[in-house]
Structure formats: structure tokens, C-alpha cells
Specification:
Strand 23, helix 16 and strand 24 form a beta-alpha-beta unit. It is globular, with a radius of gyration of 25 Å. An 8-stranded antiparallel β-sheet has the order 3-2-4-1-10-9-11-15, with helices on one face. A 7-stranded antiparallel β-sheet has the order 5-6-7-8-12-13-14. The chain has a 5-stranded parallel β-sheet with strand order 17-16-18-19-20, sandwiched between helices. The chain contains 17 helices and 25 strands. The protein has 596 residues and is α/β, with parallel strands linked by helices. The protein folds into 3 domains: 236 residues, Aminohydrolase, N-terminal nucleophile (Ntn) domain (Glutamine Phosphoribosylpyrophosphate, subunit 1, domain 1), CATH 3.60.20; 191 residues, 3-Layer(aba) Sandwich (Rossmann fold), CATH 3.40.50; 159 residues, 3-Layer(aba) Sandwich (Rossmann fold). It binds 6-O-phosphono-alpha-D-glucopyranose.
């Protein structure tokens, strides 16, 4: 949700900023811009993708500057609203990720005081306030400004009279500082700087930093502190397409390796340091609260099912944005928050309020050093590596893998289920690889679905959340309207939509729901709707019943969501490919949703 970058060093800033911005485009791509210090301040910004700005822009001389890629919140995506934003004199330039809640009052006061505004954004008030507060020291002016605004921000600011520094600050939106030799960077996220350095300072809430070529000075709540430098594990190669047509297909194809590598993690998770997870084994039986958004919420639904079924615990699950507006809460023993980015505003708001209430919080996330991990008592990393495509794929299956790891950590899991799970995991990487290798049937189904405007996905039990996820993937990247529903609910409404123009994707599970789902297929067929069945290989009896079949390898049903998820990711991918959609950057979406 908007990407912020900054560079100060000995290289030309323009190329450096644009390269970093290109790596942050998953955060928003409505417009982009840069400001370079070249004695004065030179700004280039437009309603284009970063590659187009790089291709068309005039060369700017200067070795420091800031940049931004935007996901529009306040003010439509146009050139004037693109960042960086200036003050009246154009002495100051600001890039911002976040929301300023009191911008209207501030703007009214500034307008009355003679300031003129050139955009509709909330961000522009920051540059005008800095102008008003400036008395020869940019850091002091920024500090004074931050005391006047209410909201969330990660900002980077430059002033034409202070050519040797960037001033940056964070509150509610992520910001990291990358450290080099005689050069330093700032960015919303690690992939932006991986080409240059792995030494990072993860900025905390209410921190302000002054970054020069020589180093970084950091203040928290106004008091100077010494920065904690961390080494990041991710590599630049991981954040590149590496010959694949899209990041999405690269990330789908990475899943067998990620699951294979994690099998040792799963084995370890039953080991010597159970941490918070021991709550899952404690007596009296604990209650669990699960919170997440988007695809991570679907992983949460599967977690709820598994924890209830296999550990016999009571689990309450909520979409984080809904949870935040509830007046009456049950206080559970353990909160589990699932978030790929660890920066989703709704999840962080929920975590802050649960922390205040004293609940123990465990986070499942993919991003080292993220805000959620800093709010949690304990973090379990999904270790999927950087996920760049906006549509979550490998992070979802990696979340499921961690959830299975949590189950295996509990002594409440009975021996038989433990054996079933560990046995299934042994073959899972090759099972997933089989689906990826034999993708032709899925690709042909994708071509077929590409001609429709509405698709319904149904599943039951463990695979009901997969129906929701399959529908979400399809609508996100192919722009086909898709709805996921529980198999048994079809007749309570969605059946009214069925016709030859509305295909239904049916996910079959080899469990007690199988026969009921066959009946549902018959009910769909007599209404004339085409059916695509996703079914374990052995179930050849359904071939005559449906229009198209995607056979997936026969596996222990408890892990079948992993395979069905991959098949549906591929289905969405090939459908979107056929429709010529911008797969990695679907319109209006962003990967990291840092606004409420
Ligand atoms: C956005 C992304 C989704 C993601 C959701 C939750 O909508 O586009 O892919 O599932 O946010 O994000 P999180 O990082 O909290 O898992």
C-alpha cells in the first residue's frame, strides 16, 4: 500500500531510486515519482508504471533523493496527486505511505494562512507544515510536524538547503534503512534494497532518523538511541523473476521446494522449545482466537477446522477488520494472527488492542522483522521467501505448513493423526510437483473458463475454505466474478444463478462429504451449468458426470487443501493468462494493505 524509497550515496540517485521502486510496485502502482537533490530539488512523477517513468524520464544529476509508488487513497490517481509532494516554495519534497486523519482541518488552516495546494492528497499537508516549522534544521521541522498530525505514516523528506541528508520517520507504516559503505537507503520493504545490501535497521514505531552518506542517527519518542543492525536472509535472486513469465507462476512453482525445506522445520517443531505452543497442550483445554485478512483468513479457516477436529479445542475465527468493531469480546487463551506481510493495518490494530487486554499472541508471518512480529509474544515464520505477485500463492501453502507444524507440536494430537500427517508430508512436495508438471488439463480448463463472466466454486469441510480461496484467486487476477460457497449452501441461494453461462468448480474430498457432493453435482448438471471437478486421481467414476476433470494425486485427506490450493492457483493463473490480464499487478489491488 504505497512504497517509499530513498537513497543517499555516491551513485546517481535516479537509477537507484527507480530500481528500488520497481521492486516495491507490488505495494501499489497507480502512479510513481522521484525527487532528486541536485543543488535544488528536481521532481519527476506521472500516472505510469515505474518502468515507463524510467524509460521516458529525462536524466537527473544528483546522488541523493526519494521516491514513491502509489496506491491511491486520498485523491484519485492523477499526476498532481502522485508523490513526491512539495511545499509552496518547492524547497521541500515528501513521500508518504499512510493516512493523515486530521488533514482537512490542517489544510483549512494552512489555506487561510496563504498556503496554496497543488493536490487533493492528505500527504501534501506534511510538506506545508514542514515549511511552516522550518527554522534551518530539517529534522527539527519534521519532528514538530509529526506532533501536529494524527494518523499513520512512513515518510521520507528532503530539503534543498540540506543536500546531505534524508529525514525519515515511521508510525504505523513500515520503514527500513539499508546500510552500505558511504551510501545508505530507506525503503518500505526489504526487496527494494536487496540488490545493494543485506544490513538493515528495522525502524520501530515513533522513530525518526537522519540518514547521511556516513551513517544514521535514530531517535525514538524524541530520545536518541543506537540503531540495532540486522542481517537479512533473503537474497536478491529470490526477489527476481528468474526466467519465469510472471512472479505468480514462479511463486507457484516454488511450492514443492518450500514444503520440502520445511519438513525439517515441522520435525523440529515438536522439539525442545515449544514456547507459546505449549498452550495448545495445556489443561483445562485452552480456547483459541484466530484473526487474519484475505487469503490468510482462508488459511485461518483451515486452521480452525484442523485445531477443532484434531486437538478438540474450541476456536473462534474472525476477519481482523470485523473483529476491530466488535463491542463484546470473549477472552480466549491464545490469539493466533496469520499475516503474510505482517503489515496489514487491520491485523495490527487488532493485535494492539489484544495486547492491551493482555492476551498472548502468536503470529504466523512471512516477513522477518515485520510489525506483527514485533507486537507478538512469539513468531512462527513461513519461510516462503519474498512473495512479489499481489495474489498470494506460496505464502498460503507455507501458512498451512506452519499450521500443521503447530498441530504436530501439541501433545493433544493423537498418535494415529500424527502418523497420518507426518506420512502425508513426506510425499507432499512430489505430489505438488506432479500437479505443476501435469498442468495441461488445468491450463485447458483455464482457457475454457476465460470465456465466462461468472464462476462458482464449492467445497465442503476442509476444502470449503479452498473454494473461497479458489474464487478469490480467480477474481483477483482474471477479473471474472467468482463466488466461493459451501457445497451444502448452494441450494440456499447461489443455485438461482446457475445456467449454461455459469460454470461451477467443485472440489471433492475423499471423506464423508464425497457422496453428498456427487448429489450436488447432479443438482448442478440438471440446471444446465457446466461442472469442472477437482478430484483425487482414483475417483474416475465422476468423469462421466461432469464436463471437465482435474485429477490431483491421491493423498491423505487432511493435507488435501494444499494440493487443491495449488491446482486452483494454476487455474486462476491460466485463466488470467488467456484473458491477457496483468497477472502480477491486478488493477486496484496492493499486496500489503497498510490502511484500515
Ligand atoms: C491483500 C493481499 C492479499 C492478502 C491480504 C492479507 O489483500 O493482496 O493477497 O491475502 O492483503 O494480507 P496479509 O499480508 O495480512 O496476509
Amino acid at each position: 500500500m504505497c512504497g517509499v524509497v530513498g537513497y543517499i550515496g555516491h551513485r546517481q540517485a535516479q537509477a537507484n531510486l527507480l530500481e528500488s521502486l520497481a521492486r516495491l510496485e507490488y505495494r501499489g502502482y497507480d502512479s510513481c515519482g522521484i525527487a532528486v537533490l541536485d543543488g535544488s530539488i528536481r521532481v519527476l512523477k506521472d500516472v505510469v508504471r515505474v518502468a515507463d517513468l524510467a524509460a521516458t524520464s529525462e536524466p537527473l544529476e544528483g546522488t541523493s533523493g526519494i521516491g514513491h509508488t502509489r496506491w491511491a487513497t486520498c485523491g484519485e490517481p492523477n499526476q498532481a496527486n502522485a508523490h513526491p509532494h512539495y511545499d509552496c516554495t518547492r524547497n521541500i519534497a515528501v513521500v508518504h505511505n499512510g493516512t493523515i486523519n486530521n488533514h482537512q482541518q490542517i489544510k483549512a488552516r494552512l489555506l487561510a494562512g496563504g498556503h496554496t495546494f497543488s493536490s487533493d492528497t492528505d500527504t501534501e499537508v506534511i510538506s506545508h507544515l514542514i515549511e511552516e516549522n522550518y527554522q534551518g534544521d530539517l529534522a527539527s521541522a519534521v519532528r514538530a510536524t509529526l506532533n501536529q498530525i494524527d494518523g499513520s505514516y512512513a515518510i521520507a523528506v528532503i530539503h534543498h538547503k540540506e543536500q546531505d541528508k534524508l529525514v525519515v520517520a515511521r508510525c504505523g507504516s513500515p520503514l527500513i534503512i539499508g546500510l552500505g559503505e558511504g551510501e545508505n537507503w530507506v525503503a518500505s520493504d526489504v526487496p527494494a534494497i536487496l540488490d545493494y545490501t543485506k544490513k538493515v535497521i528495522f525502524m520501530e514505531e515513533n522513530e525518526l532518523a537522519v540518514i547521511t552518506r556516513q551513517g544514521v542517527r535514530l531517535w525514538r519518542d524524541g530520545r536518541e538511541i543506537s540503531p540495532e543492525i540486522k542481517e537479512v536472509e533473503w537474497t536478491a535472486i529470490q526477489a527476481q523473476k528468474g526466467g519465469h513469465e510472471h512472479f505468480m507462476i514462479k511463486e507457484i512453482r516454488e511450492q514443492p521446494r518450500i514444503i520440502r525445506e520445511s519438513n525439517s522445520v515441522l520435525a523440529h517443531s515438536g522439539g525442545s522449545d515449544p514456547g507459546l505452543i505449549e498452550i495448545l497442550s495445556s489443561n483445562p483445554p485452552p480456547t483459541i482466537l484466530l484473526l487474519a485478512c484475505g487469503t490468510s483468513y482462508h488459511a485461518g479457516l483451515i486452521a480452525k477446522y484442523l485445531i477443532q477436529e484434531l486437538l478438540g479445542l474450541s476456536v473462534h475465527i474472525e476477519i481482523a477488520s470485523e473483529f476491530n468493531y466488535q463491542r463484546h469480546r470473549i477472552s480466549e487463551d491464545l490469539g493466533i494472527i496469520i499475516t503474510q506481510s505482517g503489515e496489514t493495518a487491520d491485523a495490527l490494530i487488532a493485535m494492539r488492542s489484544l495486547r492491551k487486554e493482555g492476551m498472548k499472541l502468536l503470529v504466523i508471518t512471512n516477513v522477518p522483522g515485520c510489525s506483527a512480529s514485533r507486537l507478538a509474544d512469539e513468531t512462527w515464520y513461513t519461510r516462503a521467501g519474498p512473495e512479489i505477485s499481489v495474489a498470494a500463492t506460496k505464502s498460503f501453502t507455507a501458512q498451512l505448513k506452519v499450521i500443521y507444524g503447530l498441530l504436530l507440536s501439541s501433545s493433544r494430537l493423537d498418535r494415529r493423526d500424527r502418523d497420518r500427517l507426518t506420512g502425508a508430508f513426506r510425499h507432499l512436495p512430489s505430489n505438488i510437483q506432479q500437479i505443476i508438471d501435469n498442468h495441461q488439463d488445468i491450463q485447458s480448463c483455464g482457457k475454457y473458463l476465460a470465456g465466462y463472466n461468472n464462476v462458482i466454486f464449492i467445497g465442503r469441510g476442509l476444502n470449503y475454505p479452498i473454494a473461497l480461496e479458489g474464487a478469490l484467486k480467480l477474481k483477483e487476477i482474471s477479473y471474472i466474478h467468482a463466488e466461493g460457497c459451501a457445497g451444502g449452501e448452494l441450494k440456499h441461494g447461489p443455485l438461482a444463478l446457475l445456467s449454461a453461462e455459469t460454470p461451477v468448480v467443485v472440489i471433492l474430498s475423499r471423506d464423508a462429504t464425497y457422496e453428498a457432493m456427487l448429489n450436488t453435482i447432479r443438482e448442478i448438471k440438471v440446471r444446465g451449468a457446466p461442472v469442472i471437478a477437482i478430484t483425487p486421481a482414483r475417483e474416475s467414476d465422476i468423469d462421466n458426470l461432469v464436463d471437465r476433470v482435474i485429477h490431483i494425486p491421491e493423498v491423505e485427506n487432511l493435507v488435501s487443501p494444499m494440493l487443491n490450493a495449488v491446482a486452483l492457483q494454476l487455474l486462476a493463473y491460466y485463466t488470467a493468462l488467456e484473458r491477457g490480464c496483468p497477472i502480477d499487478m491486478p488493477r486496484n489491488l496492493a499486496k500489503s494493505v497498510t490502511v484500515e
